[in-house]
Amino acid sequence: MTELKRLVGALKRESLDRPPCICPGGMMNMIVEDVMDLTDSTWPEAHLDGEAMAELAAGQPENGGFENYGVPFCMTVEAEAMGAPVSMGDRIHEPRVIGYVMSNSGDMNSLKEMDLSSERTAQVCRAISLLKKRNGDIPVIANLTGPISLATSLVDPSLFYKDMRKSPEKVQILMDFVVEQLVRFGKAQVEAGADVLTISDPSGTGEILGPKAFERWAIPALNGILDRLSTSVKGTIVHICGRLGGVAHLLDDIRSDCISFDSITSAKELALRLSTKSLMGNVSTLAIETASPEHLKRMAKVCMDQGIDILAPACGIGAGTALSQVRTLVDSAKERKSS
């Protein structure tokens, strides 16, 4: 079975030979320094060069690492293309937004549509195109910053969250605009050749918003993207950080194939509460970087025993993580027998 067929099968909750082991990209960065050394492609240059970006992404599966390609390697591409200033980081630090475009949630005149011809959006799509041609058996994963996370990269989060209560009409206008821009970028990535779409929304968690606001704001925005892109890809993943217990009863309302989640959420409990989703995660990124191989394998086994369908880090891995640790995680999935 190819890596692509295995991942799509897992997303659709089909019976498989074993679980796949992936790291999607975007917020869930998959790149480590060992891969930079093996491919002669490095950060921050690769963030701006589609060929180097593709080489880095390919360096994982081609060297025994994660069983997918995933770009970009951060969650700043969309905000930058909409006018936000971004620091490109360095060899071990990802790019980050360093200023806000909007003075408040209603300051729409300061906001521009996403420029899909901008350097980085174009290079992400170029990387996807190159990766799709490189090996059609490896899944190419497109990544979008979640709608609330993008909104809070454009306006100060404290103002945005306050306006959810005090000026919901302003927030709705902003969210509608953000969703539209994300759909445009998502379509561009799909047209470039992406097989699977991941949306990661670390600022739109149940812990931050609370259940009522999560249901009011996060779910409709996510579904606004998924409803327009799902039919164009082979599968969809939504990643939500933090503890999910308070919003677990709402997760089936998200129209993705899969929910990816943090290590602080119990896979066993979530598996009991979700009836329509495959589960992805949720191995601690700290453990992936620092645990002994034996302990890491035990942790991976526990995750799979508790109901994980797609073995993956609970978040993006640090660039200092040894590739050998990633291989250990992948080997844990490869050694798993079908149940």
Give an overview in words:
- With 339 residues, the chain is α/β, with parallel strands linked by helices.
- Helices cover 45% and strands 11% of the residues.
- The chain has a single domain, classed as Alpha-Beta Barrel (TIM Barrel).
- The strands form 2 sheets. It has a 7-stranded parallel sheet, sandwiched between helices.
- The relative contact order is 0.15.
Descriptive terms for the model:
339 residues; alpha/beta; TIM Barrel; 45% helix; Uroporphyrinogen decarboxylase (URO-D)
- The mean pLDDT is 97
| CATH architecture level-2 label | Alpha-Beta Barrel
> Ranges with pLDDT <50 over ≥5 residues?
none
Globular, elongated, flat, extended or rod-shaped: what is the shape? globular
- Proportion in helices: 40-55%
What do we call the CATH topology?
TIM Barrel
Provide the gyration radius in Å: 19 Å
Domain tally: 1
Q: How many β strands by DSSP?
A: 9
Question: What structural class results from the helix and strand content?
Answer: alpha/beta
The largest pleated sheet is described as: 7 strands, parallel
Order of helices and strands: HHHEHEEHEHHHEHHEEHEHHEH
- For the termini, the CA-CA separation is 16 Å
Quaternary structure state of the chains depicted: single chain
